[in-house]
Structure formats: C-alpha cells, structure tokens
Amino acid sequence: MQIIKTVSSMQDYTLKMKSSGNDIGFVPTMGYLHEGHESLLQKAREENDILIASIFVNPLQFGPNEDFEKYPRNEQHDIEIAEKNGIDVLFMPPVEEMYPRELGITIQAVDRIDVLCGKSRPGHFDGVVTVLTKLFHLTLPDNVYFGIKDAQQVAVVDRLIKDHNFPIQLHMLETIREEDGLAKSSRNVYLTEQERNEAPSLSKSLQLAQEKIFDGEKNPAIIVNEVKNYINTHTTGKIDYIEILRFPSLKPITEVDQQVIIAVAVQFSQARLIDNIILMPDGTSSPVLG
Ligand code: PAF
C-alpha cells in the first residue's frame, strides 16, 4: 500500500492508472476507521482494479462551534485497517495541501440541505461537496462508496454527481451496527457508559416505525410521535430532529406513499448521534437512489 500525501503525486498516480485502463474505486473518509468503513472498502476492493481511500478531516465542513479540533484521529490504526483491506493507495493530505490558499471558488449545495442535519449545520454540505469535488478530480474514480447512515450526505452527493456530470457510479451501502443495533460511528467514543447503554434506542425506535408502516400506518405525524415517545422514554438525550421525508429528494410528505426516510438525530452530552431507516410504503427496505 502506498501512502500519498501530496496533490501532485495523487494526480500522477491516478492519471497513470487511468491511462492503463484500470477501474478506480474510491472511499472518501475522515479516518478513525471502523467496521462501517471496512464494509465500504471491502465492497470497493471486490469491484475495482484499483482501490483508493482518503483520510482527510475536512475543516470546511465543520461549523465554528463544532468538533473539528476534537474530531477523533488515529493515523496508525487507520493505516493498519487500510492495509488489512487491500487498499492500493491511502491519500492522507495535510490541510495545507488541500487548501493552500483561501478558495476563490467553492461549491454550494442548494437542494436537499434545508432539512435533517443540513438545517442545524449551515454550510456543512457546502464543505462536503467542495472537498468531494476536489477529491473526485484528484482520484478520478469510476465508483465511489458511501454509507447510508449518512443518508443526507448520500442524497447530496447524488446531486453533485448528476448535476456536475461526474462520470462516477455512486454506491450506497447499508449501515453497519453493533450487536445491540447501535449504528457504528467514529463519534460513538464520546458516549458515557450510561449513554452507550441508551444509544441502541435510536435504532429500536426506527424498527418501531417500520412495524407501524408494515401494519399499514400512512400518517407521518403518527409515526414521528411514536419514535419521539420511544426515544424520550428510553434515553436522556435531547432530540434534535425526527423527520419523515421522501428519499432521495428529501421533500416533505403528507402520506407514506413512496420510498421514505425516517431519520433521527439525538444530542447526548458529548456526542450527537444520527440514524435512519429507508422504507417503501409496505414497510420493506431496499434503498434506491432512483
Ligand atoms: O462522511 C465523511 O466522512 C465526510 O463527510 C466525507 C465524505 C469524507 C467528506 O469529507
């Protein structure tokens, strides 16, 4: 495995690989790799000649009061995980390499951002699409892999790729969970012991919503209420949002009559956890971007 830290070496490598006819799979990450990332890496490894992953904690996508400085980092552990998963190149640029000067042109996300996390994190998705545009140019992937746990991110990247004609196939992979249902996340390390015990209630509340839909419930307000009561009864966290929206357009609904996402965000003392489930009106789940 090669570790590349500069933009110019990354570009030289991808141009060489493309010109010799290789398919490139790319998994962008912010590091602190866990089984969720590994599932993306394994799928990408199976489906491509060359596998590139990036580790870059992107300052542009953190708000002034967010956890950019505190975001968990463990370079050595990440390198071991990358090696174990057969990555060809791990791209780990320092911030000055990605942003050597203040950007004169940024990309702004305007659709699919005024709901869910986008509502409480203004500018977050502008940072995400800006860095991904740079990373896509540097790695020239045929296939990119994202986890559906960050479903809004997937929906926004779907628009980035389609609106800006990147010749890239977007793959969204299911959420990887702990045995008790908690979605794997780099931020789970911030949970206290008690909060860690409460945290699986997020996925349980979503299962409850799924059961309601299975049973024929179509009214989003009733489903939201069910989820809200469950989380409030079983956790000390503060609900940031519970929303049911069409997926992937993230438009509001008055009835569960198409593919929908039910998404929750709960603020614990030091960690804000998110989770979601994507369902068809009959309660089944096999998410598609359409
Ligand atoms: O999901 C993440 O880790 C980040 O948002 C991404 C896609 C690597 C962009 O910085």
Task: Explain this structure.
The protein has 290 residues and is α/β, with parallel strands linked by helices. It folds into two domains: 2-173, HUPs (Rossmann fold, 3-Layer(aba) Sandwich); 186-279, 2-Layer Sandwich (Pantoate--beta-alanine Ligase, Chain: A,domain 2). The protein has ten helices and nine strands. The protein has helices at residues 7-19, 35-47, 75-84, 95-98, 116-120, 124-139, 151-163, 193-198, 201-214, 220-234; strands at 2-4, 24-29, 50-55, 89-91, 143-147, 169-173, 238-246, 260-267, 272-279. It has a six-stranded parallel β-sheet with strand order 1-4-3-2-5-6, sandwiched between helices. Helix 6 (124-139) crosses helix 7 (151-163) and helix 9 (201-214) runs antiparallel to helix 10 (220-234). The longest helix has 16 residues, at 124-139. The chain is globular, with a radius of gyration of 19 Å. It starts with a strand and ends in an 11-residue tail after the last strand. Residues 28-30, 58, 61, 128, 131-132, 150, 153 line the site of pantoate (PAF).
Summarize the structure.
Helix content is 38%, strand content 18%. The protein is of the alpha/beta class. It folds into two domains: 2-173, HUPs (Rossmann fold); 186-279, Pantoate--beta-alanine Ligase, Chain: A,domain 2 (2-Layer Sandwich), CATH 3.30.1300.
List keywords for this structure.
6-stranded parallel sheet, 290 residues, Rossmann fold, alpha/beta, binds pantoate
Low-confidence stretches: none
In the CATH hierarchy, what is the class of the largest domain?
A: Alpha Beta
Ligands, ions, cofactors: pantoate
Whole-number mean pLDDT: 97
Major β-sheet annotation: 6 strands, parallel
SSE succession: EHEHEHEHHHEHEHHHEEE
The dominant shape is: globular
Number of domains: 2
The CATH homologous superfamily of the largest domain: HUPs
Instruction: Tell me what the CATH architecture of the largest domain is.
Output: 3-Layer(aba) Sandwich
CATH topology of the largest domain: Rossmann fold
Task: Give the proportion of residues in helices.
Answer: 25-40%
